[in-house]
Amino acid sequence: MFYLQKKVKDIYGGDYELFSLKGDTVAAAFGKLCFTNNQYTEFASKNDVARSLLDMIGMNIAQLSYLCAKNHNTNHLIFVGNFLRHNDLTMKGIAYSIHYWSRGSMEAAFLKHEGY
Prior knowledge:
4 strands, two-stranded antiparallel ribbon, 4 helices, alpha+beta, 11% strand, Nucleotidyltransferase, domain 5, two-stranded parallel sheet
């Protein structure tokens, strides 16, 4: 399975130490599709596109939430809604992203009955 995000290691060959970026950090959602006639365009499946889209949406939700929490000086973020129901990939992505951007100073929480 291909994931279509372009990562730091795809650009720099590994970690980018000048900015403390790990090689597995996403640099561009769908970045591997921006060139025509490449291996990713030819072999990308609908599942790859769906997974990349899901990751992109989760990361955007996390980034906006992080910025709002920072603006309001809070360290606890609670996520609710049917989008997260049985969506472990997005919950893990949001939790990781909040932890990453806040350098561990903020925590993402998810309600057990998030649809209510």
